[in-house]
Write a structure and sequence with these properties.
This protein is α+β, with helices and mostly antiparallel strands. It contains nine helices and eight strands. The chain has helices at about 5-10, 15-25, 45-60, 65-75, 85-90, 95-105, 115-130, 135-150, 195-205, and strands at about 1-5, 35, 40-45, 85, 115, 160-165, 170-175, 185-195. The strands form three sheets. A three-stranded antiparallel beta sheet has the order 1-3-2. Strands 7-6-8 form a three-stranded antiparallel beta sheet.
């Protein structure tokens, strides 16, 4: 979490901008979280989500009206018709060639097209591979999990959990926030907010 003061200091935006963007639904109402502190009530935000969203707004605000921005930033609005070839994905460095060649098509294949959701799943695999937390075979299990269940959580804040027990990898998707309790011997390897990945991908595509 990040406090409102920290957010304003880090991004250089003003209090007025922040709440104008809230009124225009550029920043979702549910990201404004009121908490009690020793100084009273303060507003906090999910750190990675709000920082990525503010950066996207700053990158686009000179070219689009606030209403156009709201449409562009709402979930995957504006990207539903997106189709990119593996070659374009490689050239724009959206995911690494290793991820593409392992889970997708050869970058020289001009006919294989990727929609936003498929790209998002590849970004998730790319992120965990880059961190060193996941091997290539586990990535195949991750993609099967996302392909099978991500649609059920579409449009809802959700998290991806990567756990291991006795060396066996498991992936879980759950609405956010969720409180999960694991059996003894289960190790949480990584937790990824899918909203963070969506913001990152939209930033790369904008």
């Amino acid at each position: 979490m990040i406090s409102k003061k920290e957010l304003l200091d880090l991004t250089g935006i003003s209090y007025g901008q922040l709440y104008r963007w809230k009124r225009k639904q550029l920043i979702p109402e549910e990201w404004f979280i009121r908490k009690s502190t020793y100084t009273g009530q303060e507003t906090f935000f999910p750190k990675m989500l709000v920082l990525a969203r503010v950066q996207n707004i700053l990158n686009m605000k000179d070219d689009l009206s606030l209403d156009e921005l709201a449409s562009r930033l709402s979930d995957t609005a504006g990207f539903s018709d997106l189709r990119l070839t593996a070659k374009t994905i490689s050239e724009r460095n959206i995911v690494t060639d290793l991820t593409l060649s392992t889970y997708g098509a050869d970058v020289r294949d001009k006919d294989d097209m990727y929609a936003f959701d498929k790209l998002l799943h590849l970004v998730a695999a790319d992120t965990l591979l880059a961190s060193g937390d996941m091997n290539l075979d586990e990535g195949r299990l991750l993609l099967r999990t996302l392909d099978r269940h991500a649609e059920e959580l579409k449009g809802r804040p959700s998290d991806l959990y990567f756990v291991r027990k006795m060396g066996v990898a498991l992936f879980m998707l759950a609405p956010s926030p969720a409180e999960l309790f694991f059996d003894e011997g289960v190790r949480l390897v990584s937790k990824v907010a899918l909203g963070d990945l969506i913001e990152q991908l939209k930033g790369r595509l904008s």
